[in-house]
TrEMBL record:
Family: Belongs to the protein kinase superfamily. CAMK Ser/Thr protein kinase family.
Gene of this entry: LOC112690478
Compartments where found: Cytoplasm, Myofibril, Sarcomere; Nucleus
Chain ranges of the Ig-like domain: 1-42, 77-169, 178-264, 271-363, 367-451, 473-542, 548-631, 635-725
GO cellular-component term (any): nucleus
A Pfam cross-reference name: fn3
Name of the protein: Titin-like
Length: 868
């Protein structure tokens, strides 16, 4: 018997004898309980003893008890299987039987209707055993109807207790409604496996049985019925479509009974190349120790597994053991030797759909090792390769360092090992590779001073002219002979800097140097120079100017006479020539028709519209034109009271915008920056006859905008300006004290109000806190937070938060207290002794550990326990 770390237990019977046939139960046990699994072994014929060192012996001649006892200290009683319900005619003899395994021998009890069964003339309880396998029976002679029901068997030993119920059905020949003696059970199987669903049913007259699948009658599957009332169906080669709820309904003239189960058919995975789902890691073992490499691989079909050492197949030997069960892979090598067993191990899984490989280095640690061939100093010119090589007395793993810093071999420096030889290779060296290289193993070192001579850098590839469209990205690049050489960039003789104007950037990648200009414009057109020492190369960037485009187009409008009209466009360029027309004729500007140009935005304003202004307005830029229709109508209402041009509000104080119309029952709309305002926590809309009011609650600078009130086809507007209160931040409720245990995290959150952005500083006992891995803090418009991870004694004291804005500052203190262990209480004094009690008195500890004492524990000990 053996088991591995993947919780796979294996029992191997080296030679099988006829008497080995029977029920085998595997029991897994831990402090939480146990679980078991049972199987039947059938021996078809005795095996030949040819090749066995022991001849003429049966299995019984070997001590199974001693081998089991060596492995298991104890097994709780475990039933090997649950028997079917027993049906028997009245006045016949019947036997109920159970089988179980247990170590040590269990006590077995039978119960019926809650009472223990004792031996009588007609009822006999018997138990016999074969080593640790037990069979217990109840034999009932001349059984009666009154004796049917559920019989319980209980087995108990020092390891635990188990219980199993057995159903006894006694048939009298009298009419009975159907009864489910053994129900259907849920089953989960893989696609293609055979599923057998069975149930045991009794009834008189014999019930008719109907099978349903998802509530529909089954007609395409043959049912099997035995004389014991066992009904079953067999589903051969099921697919996931067979997953369903299966129900059996039994009926006769006295009633019905039914039982249900769920069959789950899991789809088999399709063809899959091997994949390692668990991998072994690099490891070091002691000389003469054991190397264990474990992995898991999946694949369909199941892959074959091969092992390699230093890229050569691993040959079989008496010290090597390979295990593969279709998923779990184990390689075990005992008596590890540094010369024979150290190296790079690789496991390869292969099937018809692919190959997967995983490897790791295995080192064998020897007591003593030394360098038999040390490193030598090296001098090379830049771009040449560097080869460092040394040799050890044994095949062991080494470490490499450059100027005391360990090298991983994951960069341009390559680390190699071939047996005892260790190499470090640097191809195309640079002056940054100069330094002291050290190879280390145990307490032995060998070093090499490497000098890389700087070679004058030159242009390998020079600048070339670039033609690029406006708004695109322009890239100019050169290639130099040195990866460490720096270059400078100039435009028309003026030096450029990285990040200049948030659009000019430099890039350095190996020997390539790039100048990148994003969102290029015609102003970037010119001559560019790249300088490398005293060398220069020059090229031009030619920017192809794009025609201006209209981004924001005109929109149709409908206004009342006397109202303002505003047509607005946005262009891609601010210096574009724009032509405005009405009904195909160019517009002449005057006091009533104005044109405003603000960079890329142009506005055509009609101060007071009249019906003659009705028409189609057009804006033409280059070859692009956009149009909009203006309709001027007679006003259907008028504002008796309009909004002012500008409304001033104080931050934090509600502001009312009020208008009055010439008519009542005329609905209005309120808009903010062209978007309709709806009532909310922020806005309240009030209508009282012809008076309409918009209340903006607690306005801030973010509420500054143009507010419009529209009624039918007339409107009025105002621009809201919010004046900021000049006052320092105000701290709201704050927790004055925090008590924590040593090692807990301190999290403080403080809310405040401020009319302008604020900054926060935190202090402990007057010393400012600096952000670190332990300390973090943040502040937003209304709260400041602080986190100190794993609080320490040094963090105790007064924690101060200082909030500051442009109008002043405010501060608050918080006490930070770390809870400690209290001092010892005083020695108990006996105050009074009676026959039933003792009264004790003691003084409380001088220091309570910064937390109130909540209780004491009084222990009683025998006086001898304190004697040494």
């Amino acid at each position: 018997i053996f088991y591995d770390e993947d919780n796979v237990a294996t029992l191997i019977i080296r030679e099988v004898f006829p008497e080995d046939a029977g029920t085998f139960t595997c029991v897994a046990k831990n402090i939480a309980g146990f679980a078991s699994s049972t199987t039947e072994l059938t021996v078809e014929a005795p095996l030949s003893d040819h090749g066995s060192d022991i001849t003429g012996l049966s299995r019984k001649s070997m001590s199974r008890e001693s081998s089991l006892a060596d492995i298991l200290e104890g097994i709780p009683p475990t039933f090997s299987r649950k028997p079917k319900a027993t049906c028997t005619p009245e006045h016949t003899d019947v036997e109920l039987e159970c089988r179980l395994v247990a170590v040590p021998e269990p006590d077995i009890f039978w119960h019926y209707n809650g009472k223990e069964i004792s031996n009588t003339d007609s009822v006999k309880v018997d138990t016999y055993s074969d080593m640790h396998f037990y069979v217990s029976t109840v034999k009932i002679s001349d059984v009666k109807k009154s004796q049917e029901g559920v019989y319980s068997v209980i087995a108990r030993n020092r390891e635990g207790e188990a219980k199993m119920d057995l159903v006894l059905k006694v048939k009298t020949g009298l009419p009975e409604k159907p009864q489910i003696l053994e129900p259907l059970y849920d089953i989960t199987i893989n696609e293609g496996e055979t599923a057998v669903l069975s149930t045991q049913i009794s009834g008189e007259p014999q019930p008719t049985v109907e099978w349903l699948k998802n509530s529909k009658k089954i007609t395409d599957i043959k049912t099997v019925v035995t004389k014991d009332g066992l009904h079953s169906i067999t589903i051969d080669k099921p697919t996931p479509r067979d997953s369903a709820k299966y129900t059996v309904i039994a009926s006769n003239k006295l009633g019905t009974a039914q039982t249900t189960c769920f069959l789950a058919v899991e789809e088999l995975p399709g063809p899959q190349a091997p994949l390692f789902i668990e991998r072994f890691q690099e490891q070091t073992v002691k000389e003469n120790g054991t190397i264990t490499l474990m992995a898991k691989v999946t694949g369909n079909p199941i892959p074959t597994v091969s092992w390699f050492r230093n890229n050569k197949p691993l040959l079989a030997s008496s010290k090597k053991k390979e295990v593969f069960d279709g998923e779990n892979i184990v390689l075990e090598i005992v008596n590890a030797d540094s010369e024979e067993d150290a190296g790079d191990y690789k496991c390869v899984g292969t099937n018809t759909f692919g190959t997967a490989t995983h490897g790791a280095r295995v080192s064998v640690d020897v007591p003593q090792v030394k360098f038999t061939r040390p490193l030598t100093d090296v001098e090379v010119d830049e771009k040449q390769s560097i080869y460092l090589e040394c040799e050890t007395s044994h095949t062991v793993s080494t470490k490499w360092q450059l100027n005391g810093k360990e090298l991983t071999g994951m960069d341009h420096r390559e680390l190699h090992q071939e047996g005892r030889v260790h190499r470090l290779i640097i191809r195309k060296s640079t002056i940054l590779d100069s330094g002291k290289y050290t190879c280390l193993v145990k307490d032995q070192t060998t070093s090499s001073n490497v000098i890389v001579h700087d070679v004058k850098a030159e242009f390998v590839k020079k600048l070339e002219d670039v033609e690029v469209k406006e708004n695109d990205c322009a890239i100019m690049e050169v290639e130099v002979s040195s990866e460490t050489a720096n270059v400078t960039w100039h435009k028309n003789g003026e030096m450029l800097t990285d990040g200049m104007n948030s659009k000019v950037f430099f890039e350095k990648d190996g020997q390539t140097r790039k100048l990148i200009i994003r969102s290029i414009s015609v102003h970037d057109d010119g001559e560019y120079t790249c300088s490398l020492g005293d060398q220069e190369c020059t090229a031009e960037i030619n920017v192809i100017e794009l025609a201006p485009q209209i981004i924001t187009k005109l929109k149709d409008q409908k206004v009342a006479t006397g109202e303002q009209v505003l047509f607005e466009i946005e262009l891609t360029k601010g210096d574009a020539l724009v032509k405005w027309t009405k009904d195909g004729k160019e517009i002449q500007l005057n006091n009533n028709v104005r044109l405003t140009i603000d960079g890329k935005r142009q506005k055509l304003e009609i101060v007071k519209a009249s019906k003659t202004d009705t028409g189609v307005y057009a804006c033409q830029v280059h070859e692009q034109t956009c149009t909009a229709k203006l309709t001027v109508e007679e006003p259907r209402a008028s504002f008796v009271k309009k909004l002012p041009d500008i409304t001033l509000a104080v931050q934090g104080s509600d502001i009312k915008l009020t208008v009055e119309l010439s008519k009542v029952d005329v609905p209005v709309k309120w808009l903010r920056s062209g978007k309709v305002i709806k009532e909310s926590d922020k806005y309240e809309i009030i209508t009282e006859g012809a008076v309409h009011t918009l209340i903006i609650k607690k306005p801030t600078t973010s509420d500054e905008a143009e507010y419009i009130c529209t009624a039918v086809n007339v409107k009025t507007s105002t621009k809201l300006k919010v004046e900021v209160k000049e006052e320092p931040p105000k701290i709201n409720n704050i927790e004055k004290e925090y008590r924590l245990k040593n090692g807990e995290d301190l999290i403080v959150n403080v809310t405040f109000t401020s009319t302008v952005p604020s900054t926060a500083e935190w202090f402990v006992n007057g010393t400012v806190l600096i952000k670190s891995n332990r300390v973090s803090y943040s502040v937003n418009e209304s709260s400041a937070s602080l986190t100190i991870k794993k609080i320490e004694e040094a963090d105790t004291g007064v924690l101060t938060l200082k909030l500051k804005n442009i109008y002043g500052e405010t501060a608050a203190n918080i006490d930070i207290i770390v809870i400690k262990l209290p001092d010892e209480p005083g020695i108990p004094d006996i105050i009074e002794i009676t026959d039933t009690s003792v009264t004790l008195h003691w003084k409380p500890p001088q220091f309570d550990g910064n937390s109130p004492i909540v209780g004491y524990v009084v222990e009683y000990h025998d006086k001898d326990e304190f004697m040494v």
